[in-house]
Amino acid sequence: MTGPLDYSGKTVLVVGGTSGIGNGIAQGFRKAGASVHVTGTRGSAEDYPDSEMEGLAFHSLDVSDRDAVDAFDWPDTLDVVVLCQGIARYGREEFTREGWDAVMEVNLDSLLDCANATRQKLADTGGSLIIVSSVGGYKGLVGNPAYGASKAGAISMVKSLGVAFGGEGIRVNGIAPGYVHTKINDAFLKDEKMQKQIIASTPRGRLGLPADMAGAALFLASPLADYVVGQTISVDGGMSVAN
Ligand SMILES: NC(=O)c1ccc[n+]([C@@H]2O[C@H](COP(=O)([O-])OP(=O)(O)OC[C@H]3O[C@@H](n4cnc5c(N)ncnc54)[C@H](OP(=O)(O)O)[C@@H]3O)[C@@H](O)[C@H]2O)c1
Q: How far is the CA of 106 from the centre of ligand 1 (A)?
């Protein structure tokens, strides 16, 4: 591949790249020629399906442990960092102090820790930071107040870091996915009736795929998006403009 979407010679790190959307983004960059590192919470690459880990360098990192983020051995060079870590708690747990804290630690606090930790390396390459939030950050979420607040915070952080890091040559942008069936939402998306309901209110007529998010990430990190700063692109098949 040649052209602006050719990532040969580039090093990409996807935090939360072991599963679902992050894994789709990691594989997208790999197929575009990049050397790709991913992090996940388990001990080793063998703890994940072979198909997901194909061609990726794995590192174990639990971002809720702030000291572990500070101590993490980041790759020497970084052209693109994608922050895709995320959790949700169901069954009203996010209304409890423990549930709120657990979600905020992973979905919001760790974004700043990871951004601070990789800032200099991204400045050295004139690189891109991409934060994965959610269209849920623009809505009221009846059972997930922490998830919704964390994602609204992530969208805000894209703007603040876009401004704060912009002068160093780092472009910060975000992706707000719609519904993609992954392990974070399998609890309700495995229900076919629920899927049909979502699809019926999505102009594109289907759920999202990790590869859809990879397309947006490849664009945002490329020279095609050289003048795009502090923006979060909704990649939701039109759901949020239809409802
Ligand atoms: N799926 C959707 O419909 C949807 C919609 C909007 C936004 N999003 C967002 O997209 C991102 C990816 O979610 P997904 O749907 O791909 O879910 P997923 O399949 O559950 O993937 C979540 C990723 O985050 C990692 N992670 C979880 N807790 C972590 C921790 N404490 N420290 C470090 N990494 C941690 C996971 O690692 P392990 O593999 O080791 O568990 C995994 O790589 C999340 O930020 C999510 O909020 C998803």
A: 9
